[in-house]
Amino acid sequence: MATPLNRRTFLRISGATVLGGLAVNAGLMPSREAQGAQDTSVIPDRVVPTMCELCFWKCGVNAYVKDEKVYKLEGNPLHPLSNGKLCPRGTGGGIGALYDPDRLKKPLIRTRVGGEEKWREATWDEALDYTAKRLNEVKDKYGAPAVALFSHGQGGAFFKTLLKAMGSKTIVAPSNDQCRGPRETGFELTFGAALGSVETIDIPNSKCVAFLGTHLGENMHNTAVQDMSKANANGATFITVDPRFSIIASKSKYWLPIKPGTDTALLLAWMNVLITEKLYDQDFVTNNTVGFEQLAEHVKDKTPEWAYIETGLEPKLIRETARELAKNAPASLVHPGRHVVWYGNDSQRSRAIAMVNALLGNWGKKGGFYLPSAMPVKGYPMPELPHGEEAKPRVKFPFATLPCAFDACEASAPAADDPPRIHAWIVYGCNVPLTLPNPKRVIEVMQQLDFVVAIDTMPAEVTGYADVVLPENTYLERYDELDNGPYRVPYVSLRQPVVASLYDSKPGWWIAKTLATKMGLGQYFPWKDAEEYLGKRLEASGLSFADLKRNGVLVGKPGPLYATEPAQTFNTPSKKVELFSQQLADAGLPPMPVYEAPEEPPTGYFRLLFGRSPVHTFSRTTNNRKLLEIVPENELWLNTEMARQLGLKNGDRVMMENQDSVKTGPIKLRVTERIRQDCVFMVHGFGREDARLRGGYKKGAADSRLVTRVKRDPEMGGTGMNVNFVTLYRFQEA
Ligand code: SF4
Questions:
Q1: CA triplet 180, 360, 255: central angle to 5 degrees?
Q2: How large is the average pLDDT for residues 25-48?
Q3: Which residue has the CA at smallest separation from atom 1 of ligand 1?
């Protein structure tokens, strides 16, 4: 049995550090054609419908198989999120992920030989026995909440059950406090409803959509892009508010190149115009809202002229765009965004977005926010889970509905006179060091933990600091938890194996169930296997598992998409849309959004902005050979005039250094007029520094290394990350 290690060093998974080596089974390696060629001349042996996992949109896929090789992926025409189409990541990336030669192929245990740390290949039995023993030791010594789960993705559901069975509610998802949490808080405080994923916005029927820092087209969520294309084809007016001329800006009637961090000023000015010019939906406001008078008073002096000073946007443009939104209401909306953790005032900015939408009267209206429905699917009968507790974070946020991953990380380290509250991490499907802010700090914390187990398909920064690495099957090799919306039509969708496991990897459900059994918690996984688990749930719900396996999705009858009465009921304390929030006032927070000017960069520094590429999902795909063929590295967008002043030109390689003297790079410059002079922009997820990732190693640069500080959202604790500044200098080859 391996000896517990106290302060773990980073271990690459390569021949040099794996005892016994990792032999590639040449017989299982696919041909080049099988690694993603979309060959239309081949007659498939079978076509298996399943659910994509190249990102978390969960589109329906039809996978084509010949000689036990997956050679083509297409959108499932029956699936309401695909409509027969996939995005570029889904099309090529699924096959690239399945046949990635760098995949994790066997369980690994960190061990020490002669003072040197190495990976040792292990059997599943041995790896799970060891993991169960170490987790139970932490639980017995510190209590169940001292075990935390960091999770992302559909398969995380089984590990959440494991944690709850242990009695731990320390379950965190970086997607909450590093992505869309503040949006949900802002909309819950205003409309009493979170927007979820897929967002309940009726873009295909919209006549006018304003996008604030929302990069649809670069953020390639399949259905959202299809919806946007429909609206575009229908002649909808798009308004893009962004320091960068993004893809969606190129489709827009208006581009508002706003000064970064000043969006709340624009939103307050839009409200000022809507109210002072009486352009708001007076019936909707009368029937459905509370606090209109206070709001009118609040925005009285937030004129477009006032906003001009803050945002740099011409008052005329602010008025014109507010009128454009009003003219098309209620079939117009301000898009709520998805990655909204920017400047630390993000719940309030999201609330301001919700309030503009309320003034447009678009909730429950065609072209605004639709009313979703979900297919009811019963759970598997199982014993009641223990009540459980969460490891107490050191800071509390009054409107946090989920524990923050950032705080779970901090609670895993000692503070003055306060020992760590978390001692073991189970990390499922998220590369925590490149996801949470300040990778150096995350790694320091991981090195101090009693135990870390990582479950993933690929080696990554997180697996390098784990004690045990458990290789999961890719999505094309496994069953997973069901997806059942909510959406504009109710549906239930299946992920099922298309081919057998290529390696000694296992599905997440099997890993969680087997680990639970070894920990003495098997009663909480009372089913034999995934087929029985899923089949029984569907049968109990009056649905056919055989039909679901055959079609990949079952679609039900939609409920009413739009409100039929002028007065709706909202899940807020007042049962109305709360323009004035007593909940916020009671918590000592601004009951209506207050504009806070962003901190200015020091001289010679740019504000660092980051976003997505249409063909990558962050570090999840930056080793995927198929996707690297299309976008092999990220680039740094820099304004033409600033490049001239710095003596830099398009294609130069530069290093970046942030306000805390942290450096990263080199990265290729993209000199362009399409970005303001005060900021630079790059795609997140590149700059992998782990040589195991032979496809993505040292391609581009990692923005996450430069995010050494954050500004917390006072409502829910989101970590605003656009508060970092960088200076640039030319890269000198050594
Ligand atoms: Fe897959 Fe693209 Fe759909 Fe994401 S949006 S699930 S990557 S097809």
A1: 65
A2: 57
A3: 90
